UniProtKB/TrEMBL annotation:
Source organism per UniProt: Fusarium solani (Filamentous fungus)
SMART domains: AAA (SM00382)
PANTHER family: AAA+ ATPASE DOMAIN-CONTAINING PROTEIN, FAMILY ATPASE, PUTATIVE-RELATED
Entry-linked SUPFAM superfamilies: P-loop containing nucleoside triphosphate hydrolases
Pfam family, one: AAA_lid_13
Matches recorded under InterPro entries: AAA+_ATPase, AAA_lid_fung, ATPase_AAA_core, P-loop_NTPase
GO MF terms held by the record: ATP binding; ATP hydrolysis activity
Protein name per Swiss-Prot or TrEMBL: P-loop containing nucleoside triphosphate hydrolase protein
Keyword annotations from UniProtKB, A to Z: Hydrolase
Residues of the AAA+ ATPase domain: 82-207
Organism superkingdom: Eukaryota
Length: 308
């Protein structure tokens, strides 16, 4: 039959479903063949990433060269040192996870995201689960994201032998993984030195400044016309500098916009700056209360505890 289109009658001989892997639930599911379409990659994601141009260029360079580097044979032992291990460290909502997502979109690769909660706490359980994840990542050319990987990166101690075993297993598995693995952490101060030589690219994500926040607000607001909401774009864009003055992170900005949309719908009004302001004020009250209870902000606490 070759590449010719099969007769319509022949299609009735084929099964209407096929098995596929869901990267969100991490389970195999039965899919309707008629509803399968080509993946639409978001090529704008990387360009909208808020990071210094030199940092973005470096990311693109090492990721693009990964396929070529696998064939360079720079390690004495065959099969070792051919993976790309990237460490992204910084506070919450500074763009670490978004960077991993943008890399996957830019490279047209599926993103396989796992957390320490998925992997477990028993050494044998960790070894089996990590092995399965990385095998899928290798087979399908995924960008594997190990989000909030603090338990694996934390410095070992004599008092916790179980965690030491988990870290040792992780280090051994990394030696022979030849795909792209991205780790994120907001506790770089407790970093185990054994990982230093295994990481090809380490990038720090500082607290967002006003210019960064303005870009993030602008990126989110520009996406609003794609929704079915009634939006006063002129009012929002005119007041973006006011919104950017408040010291919040990217995830909080996204949450505030979501709350503002709900608020506008509930009031049966066109979404505008006042809805953003009301949602922001509510979020600020909660943040101020947490700071009063703790006595310091999250960044000050992490700095005092030498975590980042």
């Amino acid at each position: 039959m070759g590449i010719e289109k099969p007769p319509e009658d022949f299609l009735y001989c084929l099964p209407p479903t096929i098995h596929g892997f869901d990267f969100t639930t991490k389970t195999w599911k039965t899919l309707d063949v008629d509803r399968i379409t080509e993946v639409t990659w978001n090529k704008r994601a990387f360009s909208q990433l808020v990071a210094p141009p030199e940092t973005k260029e470096l990311i693109q360079a090492v990721v693009s060269a990964h396929g070529e580097r696998k064939n360079m044979g720079l390690d004495i032992i065959e099969g070792k040192g051919q993976g790309l291990l990237v460490l992204l460290h910084g506070g919450p909502g500074t763009g670490k996870t978004l960077t991993a997502e943008s890399i996957a979109e830019e490279q047209e690769r599926p993103l396989y995201r796992v957390t320490c909660g998925d992997i477990g706490t028993e050494p044998r359980e960790v070894e089996r689960y990590l092995g399965d994840v990385l095998e899928i990542g290798r087979a399908w050319g995924c960008v594997v994201l190990l989000d909030e990987a603090d338990v694996f990166l934390e410095e070992r101690s004599f008092s916790d032998q179980k965690r030491n075993a988990i870290i040792s297993i992780f280090l051994r598995i990394l030696e022979y993984y030849d795909g792209i693995l991205i780790l994120t952490t907001n506790r770089i101060g407790s970093f185990d030195e054994a990982f230093k030589s295994r990481i090809q690219l380490a990038l720090g994500y500082p607290t967002l400044n006003e210019e960064d926040r303005l870009k993030i607000w602008s990126n989110f607001v520009q996406m609003l016309p794609r929704t079915k909401d009634r939006v006063d774009m002129e009012d929002l864009q005119m007041n973006l500098p006011k919104l950017a003055r408040d010291e919040i992170n990217g995830r909080e900005i996204r949450n505030i916009i979501t709350m503002a949309r709900h608020l506008a719908k509930f009031r049966k009004e066109t979404l505008r700056y006042q809805h953003m302001r009301d949602a922001l004020r509510s979020s600020q009250k909660f943040s101020e209360y947490l700071n009063q209870v703790k006595g310091v902000s999250d960044d000050d606490w992490a700095r005092a505890d030498k975590l980042r």
